[in-house]
Amino acid sequence: MKFRVYLAVLTVLVGLAACKKQDGNIIIDGQSNNNQLEIFRSDSFQLMAKTIREDSLPANGISYTLLGEMNDPILGKSKASLFAKMNILEPENNFPNNIEPDSAILYIPMVDGLNFYGNALTKQRLQVFPLTDGITSKVYYQNENIAYNKQISANYYGPMFQQKLDSVGYRKEKMGLKPGLLIKLSAEFARSLMQMPSEAYQSNDGLAKHFKGIAIVPENDELMPGDGGYAVLDLSNVISLAYRAKIMLYYNDTSTFVFGFEGKGTNVNQGKVGPYPQFINDQLQNSQKSYTTTYIQALGGLKTEIQIPYLLNLIKDGNVAINKAEILFYTNEIASVNQFAPPRLNLYQPLNGLSKRNRLIDDATLSPATFGGVYDESRKCYRFTVTRHIQNILNDQYFRSLNTNLGLYLAVPSDNPVIGARAGIDHSKTKLIITYTKPN
User: Fold this and answer.
1) In this structure, how many other beta carbons lie within 10 angstroms of the beta carbon of residue 12?
2) Where does a domain end: 249, 273, 297?
3) Tens of pLDDT along 289-320?
4) DSSP assignment, residue 191?
5) Considering its fold, how many domains does the chain have in total?
């Protein structure tokens, strides 16, 4: 649908000899106040959409970490494991590494607020292993593997978090814990922490030689559809010793040695997804088709690609100024109480014409306050402002004969918030609305 309005520009354009940008409204350069401008509004662009695999999402440097496994009744099984480097909070030069430990516990607090996705009542089985590969400061991706020692492990079966935890011993006192995950490590695991060489207790460098960190891996092959989910855990909190993630090693009845987690740069989330049902595989294998319903999924799973094949027709008679452009995506009916629509989505462009990696569009980086992407629960939709992005594409073609109309990617963000969510998008309702101005 296209509307045309003629404006007599007797006073509006006085003094506008240079190009100006005002909150996304771009005024055309060089118009005299004797001309007219034509303002158009178009919302009938053809859009082509399909589900594709996510590509190389960062797995470290993220605010929080996901842990758990879910059997989604729509998309099937997925899993979030975590790997983390440990450090020393209080070095010990004379640690008694030749005795037997009493016990050891692993504690990780949950985040406040949005801290679970899925069925929180499902008990899950987790295994904890010591790492054999060290974690460095490089960028890790969610599909990467980090090796761990399967010969030493601790097993846990229970809820992914507890709202109320009993106090734990700390030297001769008691330490309260906020809601989170508490795992008693095996005697074998505790012994491996107790009987390292002396340098492991004296410095972080010494620790890294002998204890490179931990892996926590969900193992829940028996999950029924609709069971399982993801806890959002805070390994980076350093507010206090009581509230931070840690391993507490007990010995000599009242003595405690505490291992902490180094920080978000060395906390790595690994996502595993699939196998997918056939209707998802059909989209992944037929790249030339467009689909009415597409899907997005966290953990490096799925995203939606949107193409606007006839966008450049806007400038077939000369360049235009985009006053406002926005695109709306509506969810379909697969949401439920436990598998709800993500509270926020991101809209990206491809890194380049040969890549499926995500790059934020200019509207997201230069105008974050008006970019959008927050879920409108009443309308069941996500609205994004894409004014700068559309103008850039048109300018590239008109002034440089460069086609940068490479499409858009709709995806679950890897941070802010951290959530193991998914959604279905109903493209019978997807709409790109552009208001633009051109000389008469």
Assistant:
1) 13
2) 273
3) 999 999 999 999 999 999 999 999 999 999 99
4) H
5) 2
